[in-house]
Write a structure and sequence with these properties.
Elements (H helix, E strand, L loop, with lengths): L2 E12 L2 E12 L3 E5 L6 H8 L6 E6 L12 E4 L11 H9 L8 H7 L15 H13 L5 E5 L7 H16 L3 E6 L2 H7 L2 E6 L2 E6 L1 H8 L4 E7 L12 E4 L2 E5 L6 H10 L3 E8 L3 H9 L17
Parallel strand pairs: 3-7, 3-8, 5-6, 6-7
Antiparallel strand pairs: 1-2, 1-4, 8-9, 10-12, 10-13, 11-12
The protein binds adenosine-5'-diphosphate.
Length: 307
Amino acid sequence: MDEVLVAEDIRRQYGDTVAVDGVSLSLSAGEVFALVGPNGAGKTTLVRALTGTTDVEGHVALFGESPTAVDRDRIGLLPQDCTPHERLTAAELLDYYAGLYDEARAIEAVLEDVGLADTADTWYENLSGGQQRRACVATALINDPDLLVLDEPTTGIDPAGRRSLWHLLSGLADRGVTILVTTHYMEEAHELADRVGLLADGHLAAVDAPDALVAEYGGQSKLTVTGEFGETVGSDLPWPVEQSTGQLTVYEVEPRDIGAVVDRLEQVGADYGGLSWSEPDLEDAYLELTGRDVTATAPLATGGQQR
Ligand code: ADP
């Protein structure tokens, strides 16, 4: 399959901060690729590098051309900081963006796609935070792009709106649109992406299908029990355990084994309260690979902002 995007050994440094550190990546037509990582991991810088909106070391090609030479009609870009004029209505905003391209989709259809058909005539400043973000997503769809690059598209959007956006993006990918999306929502990456790149400190720690990442790095399922009991409460269980006063974690248990753990707690008279079973997920894989919690915020770099 033809490569839509190819990046080789991309690097971008701001002062002493290495924001992107030797990233190589290639995306095929119709693929949905999610770049995930906590704040400060380098997602936005990488998106800007891949779309030619910041200078980088390394090589980037979009449809075989440099990002600054490629036909802009083929690319849809949602930057993280999308701040349109507040006194434009959603429809006027799209009308403005439509004028930037040789050919554009019908404004009403794009508003419908992002769930803003009923607020087409509402000023941007009067839209809710989630609606504003959806209006921004619409600006990236107006030119019917072949490659869609969305930096944190669902930030601020409520869960229902987020799901409908995932549905929209999946539909576009089914029609052959290639999608690169950044997110710090692991569930989003898992649900939406064919492949996920786990980004930490500017480098890709791993790239694979989400299920494959979880299977390889996510670890085991676990049952966590909390309550008022001592630190030997699970000593006789036939599974690996981690225990401390008030918390017992039992690994490798399946849901059908939960009853046996509960029986054991009752036998020893443990006063247990919370009981939760979980399968490993992408967050566990990220933690295992990077030693970092993806929900953590990296410290802000010192020094001035540079373009
Ligand atoms: P993310 O999008 O994952 O939050 P960023 O790409 O925004 O990560 O940032 C990566 C690192 O580069 C951070 O340490 C950030 O502070 C730094 N950085 C990003 N943009 C700039 C800039 N314009 N000037 C200086 N430092 C920057």
